[in-house]
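User: I'm writing a short methods note and want a consistent example. For NAD(P)/FAD-dependent oxidoreductase, I'll paste the sequence; you return only the structure tokens, no commentary, since I'll be parsing the reply automatically.
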Amino acid sequence: MKKLVVLGAGYGGMRVLQRLLPNDLPKDWEIILVDEMPYHCLKTEYYALAAGTASDHHLRVTFPEDARLQIKYATVTAIHAEDHSIQLNNGETLAFDKLVIGLGCTDKYHGVPGADTYTYSIQTMSATRRTYEALNNVRPEGVVSIVGAGLSGVELASELRESRPDLSIKLFDRGESVMSQFPKKLSAYVQNWFVEHGVDVSNNSNITKVEPGALYNHDERIESDAVIWTAGVQPVRVVRDLDVEKDRSGRIILTPQHFIPNHPDIFVVGDCASLPHAPSAQLAEGQAEQIVTILKHQWKEEPLPEEMPRIKLKGVLGSLGKKHGFGMMGERPLTGRVARILKSGVLWMYKYHSG
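Assistant:
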């Protein structure tokens, strides 16, 4: 049997499995999935797990069941593109005929001293569990600092405000206002929500150091019982170590057909891929759909399309606690209860269609 190896059961890897199984995988092929977890995790909802408003079980989706799907629970330590092999942390070497790399991202600390040691993360399920435990154990009326006011930081800060109303929550943002990539009206709505709900937002911040029990904003010491880092991401180390061309963010530059140049059997999906959009679950799923299309052409030995259709993104939705939200649907900004209901509906539909 020939082997299609999928590294990572994130949104992209999961979509590849769903599209190929049970009927579209050639009879002489099998799929080997490599992941650390025994289920697909809903990363877009990690903020709720960290804040204590969603259970661990709520964020799990089971893998497809198929006789030709083999799952290895391991960590990838090296990818050998020339040798068509993968090294795992258990010492096993795994050969592949085709490979889909979907290992996701990790925090980027921008060289801030102590950030990698003294902050908590919501980038992986295991890291988010540790963050939940730390936040759950913060003393009454303690101080929690969240570095980074992108979507993850905003959702975590708002959810934590509802979960722990006793806490003093500080949100540090490098921009003039939170969610500055959105239209000013929407950004102002989110900023005002924080003002009305007692979240201290520090705009134009510059975190210069993190120590046990404190961080420094423009070198001013701010005492904190816990510091959560949501201020940027980068591909995981095993991808950063790959000797292939990358963009300035460390993401792998691909052909229009989503494989590595000169390596037509190695595809990259999701946060590790250099694409003209910000990384998102929606983007990873759209890219995975196109990867499956290319795989089918290759299996049938058909000519590959020179260009792929532009991946259409429906929009972005974020939550502000359980009752309010914000987002963009096409060019239309949404705020309030409607945005929050839409986000809940999208999550429900995803879990429903994923079984």
